Amino acid sequence: MPGDIDVLPIGRNAMARPDKTAAVAELVDEFRQSNAAVLTEYRGLTVAQLKELRRSLRGNASYAVVKNTLATIAAKEAGVEGLDAELKGPSAIAFVTGDPVEAAKGLRDFAKANPQLVIKSGVLDGRPLTAAEISKLADLESREVLLAKAAGAFKAKLFSTAYLFTAPASKAVRTIEALREKQASQDAA
């Protein structure tokens, strides 16, 4: 009707801008598709260093600079807890879709070479991690090495089991052969 005035909400409850809504949706997808996420502060790193970090993480993780407010909203929507308190300052998140140990090693090694990168916290399979726990994760051997060690242990057990089963038969054959030789020497004498 003419003269009616539409009242629009103002402030934080106002309608979200489409670009922010899309950014939150993208972050929610990243959180849901990754098996781990590591929150870092990148203050002081150059664009070239960030490119180098992204390259070093390729295959195991993607590294994205995030706005703290949008990341907090996305984490809540994705059901990820434990990052809220650390989302301060210039933040970036490594979304891990590959081996979490390899991603943690990549971040740790890059942080050693570039002290401006600070690992703040993370989440692994829905469980919050401290920076110290991420460092311990980085100290683990990779999944492939652990699987190779397990395979080696299984192989050793199989060989010892096979020996256990063949040893009595082998011992019996040697005993029978010794008895034959003894019988042959007694017959010859």
Give your account of this protein's structure.
This protein is α+β, with helices and mostly antiparallel strands and 189 residues long. The chain has 2 domains: 11-140, Alpha-Beta Plaits; 141-189. 57% of the residues lie in helices and 15% in strands. A 5-stranded antiparallel β-sheet has the order 2-3-1-4-5, with helices on both faces. α4 (100-113) crosses α5. The longest helix has 46 residues, at 143-188. The chain is rod-shaped, with a radius of gyration of 31 Å. The model is unreliable at 1-11 (pLDDT under 50).
Distance between the termini: 132 Å
What is the H/E string? HEHEHEHEEHH
Q: Kindly state the mean pLDDT as a whole number?
A: 82
Question: The CATH topology of the largest domain, please?
Answer: Alpha-Beta Plaits
Silhouette? rod-shaped
Residue share in helices?
55-70%
Number of strands: 5
Using the CA coordinates, give the radius of gyration.
Answer: 31 Å
Q: Strand order across the biggest sheet?
A: 2-3-1-4-5
Low-confidence stretches: 1-11
